[in-house]
Structure formats: structure tokens, C-alpha cells
Amino acid sequence: MLNAWLEVAWARRTVHHLERLRPEVGDIAVTVKRRKPDEDRYGQISSISLSGRLNFRGGLGRRAWPHTVKHLAKPGDADHDDLLAKAREEATAEDRHPERVTHRELALLDRWKVPRRPSLVDCRALHEAMDNATEERPMQVVLENHPALLANVIAGHHGIWVRPQVRLGDRYVSDFLIASRTSAGLRWHLVELESPTERLTNPGNQRESPTLRHAIDQIQDWREWLKANLLPARATLPGITVDARGLITMGREDVTDSAREIRDRHSANDRIEIRTYDWLLRAGLSADSTLPGLLDTETGDLDRDW
């Protein structure tokens, strides 16, 4: 009898506060933290359960009962955008293992799944483009048509997905994003292409060329965008992180343009790898689907990151 009375009392309280708040999907709820009642918690409502509980975007059990809501901001309210930013930051911070994606999230990438091992046809197409292209665009086209060339350089024993021309907000479009899945989870690489005729270094002082500097800045800009928009980005790029490793592919192998110190520095300090198209072709010609990708082998990514 007592349990039934408590259930009725709880239901009445829930209904009372639902009527008070009139919450809707998209509203931002400011609630009391259970273990730290002096701190606020922020959540964007994604659904409302039959029990009356408010479910927040970001998953991970993020939800609250209506009676814990101190303030509700609706779209159009003056404080909605600021509270939305806080809700997104909080949801992102609570996700300690973004690489552990669900099958439903992986299904979002189905159309971009590719075989990891490139064929001789793939390699011939790349070789021809390298010999004839004088700008970046032909390289973009050949890799869009033969994505296994990119998939091949990264380990992904449980699948690899290569997405071309991914729009990041209104300002940026990545050349490619590569997702690869191992037993440790999903990880991403941000790929920037430049022309095969461009140099990595300046002929005179051997410092990084303006084109290489631009490519590095591009990847850093994408990371900054991800930092500010990580939760919505994960709606279509599951498990992506703000420090996703970068890969710049440009130029040809040239003893006067090795840029080894520059490449080592950016690899260690910025998690950005710099490689030539000759390197990409060599990786394709020596492909072995039973081994880690050449990029992972050279950088030790699988040992260091996983």
C-alpha cells in the first residue's frame, strides 16, 4: 500500500512540474546536479519519456526529472543559445570513450565503406594522375574514384570508411575524412590534399613552403571548428575527436625537398603527418590487408594511441 501511495505521489509531482514547464524537444533545461547541488547542469531535450523524464542529447544516460529543473529556455529566448553551447560542452565532456560507437552510429557511414586493399587499377589511376596533374583537383577526383588508396594506409580490421568533401559548418570543406575501426574502437583522420607539383620546402632556406603552411593551417582550422561544434559533428561523424590525426598529401619525392625535420616536428607536436604522392602509390603497390597500414606502421599510432 505504501509503495502504491508513493508512486501516485511521484506521478502527481511529475505531472505538476511538466505542466509548469511545458517542455518540448529542443528546449534547454538547467537542472541541479545530484552530487553537487550547488552546481548547475545543462541539457538539450531530445525526447520525453512516458514516465515524464526529460532525456537530453548526448546519450550516456543524460536525463532529469521535471522537478529538478530550475530554468527552461526555449528557442527564441534570449539565453537559449548560450545555454545550448553549455549543454553541448557538458555532453561532450561526459563522453570519455567517443571511439566506442554503436552499430546504429556506424550505419550512418555505410555508403562510404570501402575495401582496404587497392587494386592494380587503383594504383595505375593514381600513377597517371601524379604524372599529369598540375593542380590539386585531379588528385581529388582520382582518390574519390579509388578510395581504397587512402583506406590502405590506415589499420581498420573491422572496417574503413572514406568520406570525400565533408562540409564542416559554413566555412570549411575537408578533402577527405577517413574513419577506421579496430578492436579498440573508431578513429578518424583529417586529409588535406595539395598539388603533386608543389614543394614541401622553399628551395632557398628549406623552410616549409607557403603551400605546406596553408595545408597545416587548414587542418588546424578544422580542429578548431570541431572543438566548437563537437556534439553536432558527431551526429554525422560518430566518434570524431578534436585531436583527430591529420594527413597532408602533396608533392613528389625529391632529395632536395625531403623536409624530414619539418615532418617529424609536425608529427610529434601537431599530430599531422606529411607525405608525398609517391609514398601513397608505394603503399598501394605493397598493400597487404593482413598488416597495419603504412601510416600506422611508420608513426606507431596503434601502439601510442590505442
Describe this structure in words.
- The structure is a single chain.
- The chain is an alpha+beta fold and 306 residues long.
- It is 39% helix and 20% strand.
- The chain contains twelve helices and ten strands.
- Strand 6 (160-168) and strand 7 (172-182) form a beta hairpin.
- Helix 4 packs antiparallel against helix 5 (137-145).
- The radius of gyration is 24 Å and the shape is elongated.
Features:
single chain, 306 residues, alpha+beta, 5-stranded antiparallel β-sheet, 5-stranded mixed β-sheet, 39% helix
Short description:
The protein is 39% helix and 20% strand. With 306 residues, it is an alpha+beta fold.
Distance between the termini: 54 Å
Major beta sheet, specifics?
5 strands, antiparallel
Number of DSSP strand runs? 10
What is the quaternary state of this protein? Answer: single chain
Average pLDDT figure: 88
Can you count the helices? 12
Low-confidence stretches: none
Q: Secondary-structure element sequence?
A: HEEEEEHHHHHEEEHHEHEHHH
Rg result: 24 Å
Spatial strand arrangement across the major sheet: 4-3-2-1-5
Shape descriptor reads: elongated
Fraction of helical residues:
25-40%
Structural class: alpha+beta
Strand portion: 15-25%
Structural topology:
Layout: H1 2-21, E1 28-32, E2 40-48, E3 54-56, E4 63-64, E5 69-73, H2 80-94, H3 103-107, H4 120-132, H5 137-145, H6 148-151, E6 160-168, E7 172-182, E8 185-193, H7 210-228, H8 230-233, E9 245-249, H9 260-270, E10 272-275, H10 277-285, H11 294-299, H12 301-305
Parallel strand pairs: 8-9, 9-10
Antiparallel strand pairs: 1-2, 1-5, 2-3, 3-4, 6-7, 7-8
Helix pairs in contact: 4-5, 4-10
